[in-house]
């Protein structure tokens, strides 16, 4: 930790014991401020130049919005913390190739938008405003903090058919714990920050922390969900996506990858292909039956979907026979032996 950062964390730790109010304000100001403002990468510039840009003003802060295409019910893209909409350039191209319109934005304090900080409330307001402007979304593609912000916004009457969450963060507790660890402060500072949020932003809502939990009351969000998370993600623990998959049951599918981390996963061609297939509505229900609960894993060579382990059989409509992976092999009579792994080492783990 840098000397100034170490001094600040020590000061907050000590002051939290005697003046938790001011410490809570300072901690919250740090919590909602992204660490830097990444620029558009060369490989993203052409896609961003083709966007129709717009502007919203939220809490007095100018917010830059983007649109590719002019069709109805667009796909909304929500970026993560200390990121920007341009990081989804590969997804935008793939979705446009399918004829889909894409809408996105840079959150306050990010990308081309103004301000220095953002909150989940500002994210929700932006999503609401875009929802009203475009008459609804067909689907949402979100990354990291964008996932929990998306679920929070969707609990207020916004309905979409499909959600893709990549490297998901599912709840506020995880965010607060990460802040405490990264800032090097103690539990008293986190508690002071929570009291500040409760008192200033949600004074009449004692269960506000549960409202930020993507796993809470899954019946409120009746969408089909695809989750993609890398085992080597050093920012969002894979357990966050697993918790969402568990909460939403048969409506959620989880693909776990390896070696892509938290950010490089957004540029992986196989991830872009899988997400696009799902968002376009293809592959969402490609299998008609599922699997023997004795199996521990299912690999579909096209890896379009993973189904519930309570089912008794796996069958891809393109196949005429499927054999138990616990046996010597799994074969597709129409082709060669099924590969041991999906493209780029991706294994579709059943949730």
Write up what this structure looks like:
- With 351 residues, the chain is α/β, with parallel strands linked by helices.
- The chain contains 11 helices and 8 strands.
- The two termini are 39 Å apart.
In short:
This protein is of the alpha/beta class. Helices cover 35% and strands 13% of the residues. It has helices spanning 3-18, 20-31, 42-49, 89-97, 120-134, 145-154, 172-183, 187-201, 208-211, 238-248, 269-279; strands at residues 52-58, 61-68, 75-78, 102-105, 139-143, 162-166, 224-230, 252-257.
Keywords summarizing the entry:
351 residues, alpha/beta, 35% helix, disordered N terminus
One letter per element, helices H and strands E, the order comes to HHHEEEHEHEHEHHHEHEH
The amount of helix comes to 25-40%
User: What does the overall shape look like?
Assistant: globular
Task: Sketch the major β-sheet.
Answer: 8 strands, mixed
- For the record, give the distance between the C-alpha atoms at the N and C termini, rounded to a whole number: 39 Å
Number of strands: 8
Residue windows where pLDDT falls under 50 for at least 5 positions: 1-5, 283-351
Arithmetic mean pLDDT:
81
Gyration radius, to the nearest Å? 21 Å
Cross-sheet strand order for the largest sheet? 1-2-4-3-5-6-7-8
Decide which structural class fits the backbone: alpha/beta
Strand percent estimate: 5-15%
Q: Helical element count?
A: 11
């Amino acid at each position: 930790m840098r000397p100034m950062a170490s001094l600040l964390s020590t000061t907050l730790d000590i002051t939290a014991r005697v003046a938790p109010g001011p410490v809570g304000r300072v901690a919250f100001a740090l919590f909602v401020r992204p660490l830097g403002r990444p620029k558009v990468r060369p490989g993203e510039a052409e896609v961003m130049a083709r966007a129709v840009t717009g502007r919203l003003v939220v809490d007095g802060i100018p917010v830059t919005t983007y649109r590719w295409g002019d069709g109805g019910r667009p796909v909304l893209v929500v970026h993560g913390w200390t990121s920007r909409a341009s990081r989804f350039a590969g997804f935008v191209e793939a979705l446009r190739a399918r004829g889909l319109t894409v809408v996105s934005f840079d959150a306050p304090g990010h990308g081309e938008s103004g301000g220095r900080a953002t909150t989940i409330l500002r994210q929700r307001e932006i999503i609401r405003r875009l929802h009203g402007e475009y008459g609804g979304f067909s689907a949402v593609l979100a990354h990291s903090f964008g996932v929990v912000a998306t679920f929070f916004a969707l609990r207020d009457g916004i309905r979409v058919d499909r959600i893709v969450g990549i490297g998901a963060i599912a709840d506020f507790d995880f965010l607060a714990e990460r802040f405490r660890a990264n800032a090097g402060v103690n539990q008293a500072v986190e508690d002071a920050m929570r009291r500040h949020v409760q008192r200033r932003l949600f004074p009449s809502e004692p269960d506000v922390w549960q409202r930020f939990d993507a796993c809470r009351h899954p019946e409120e969000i009746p969408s089909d969900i695809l989750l993609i998370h890398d085992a080597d993600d050093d920012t969002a623990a894979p357990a966050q996506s697993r918790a969402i998959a568990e909460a939403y049951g048969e409506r959620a599918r989880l693909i776990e990858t390896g070696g892509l981390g938290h950010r490089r996963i957004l540029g992986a061609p196989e991830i872009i292909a899988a997400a696009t297939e799902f968002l376009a509505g293809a592959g969402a229900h490609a299998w008609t039956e599922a699997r023997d609960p004795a199996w521990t894993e299912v690999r579909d060579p096209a890896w379009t979907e993973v189904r519930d382990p309570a089912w008794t059989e796996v069958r891809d409509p393109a196949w005429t026979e499927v054999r138990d992976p616990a046996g010597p092999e799994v074969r597709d009579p129409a082709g060669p032996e099924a590969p041991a792994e999906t493209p780029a080492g991706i294994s579709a783990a059943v949730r």
